Amino acid sequence: VQLQASGGGLVQAGGSLRLSCAASGIIVSIATVGWYRQAPGKQRDLVADITRDGGTHYADSVKRRFTISRDNTKNTVYLQMNSLKPEDTAVYFCTVKLLASNYWGQGTLVTVSS
Question: Which of 71, 19, 57, 100 lies closest to 47, judged by CA?
Answer without folding.
Answer: 57
